[in-house]
Specification:
189 residues, Spore Coat Polysaccharide Biosynthesis Protein SpsA, Chain A, globular
Amino acid sequence: MNWTAIVPVNYGRDCKTRLAERLSPAERTDLVAAMARHVLGALAAAASIDHIAMLSPERPPFAPDGWIADGGHGLNAELAAARAQFPGAPTLIVHADLPLLTAGDIAALLDAAMASGAAIAPDLSGTGTNAVAIADDRPFAPAFGPDSFAAHQAAMPDAAIIRREGLGFDVDEPDSLSQAIARGVAGPF
């Protein structure tokens, strides 16, 4: 099965604002770019990914050929519109701030989605969603944001749940930035 991956990244706007106490705007942009490059590399190494589309306000210099302009209608509306560009295609939505993501993590998520129709990868706290894979042509209304994991589970009760560090560890808060720096996957800041 050939998958389309959609990677939303807030490039071209003020980004990672919860890290503003630690990082300047330029450092936050550099961090976003480094993590997005890492995620794109993991996707490129995943055998089942046929097409990668990056969704962002501006086309990053590292964007794949499949760039989709974010029109500023909110993440969930933009993701729904992006998915509609690939009707019927198995689709993976994966966030760009996963510095530990591996091709093996992606394969585990996609394999689970193929077995059950869909799979959800929560963040390490178990409240947010870092990736959703939909193997069938079911309707899907993205619900990323606070408590998105519960919202996605409620919308797709048959979806497999995949908990892996590479899919769960995101960098949004100063504590997660410190952990990423300590692990050598971000920084030095």
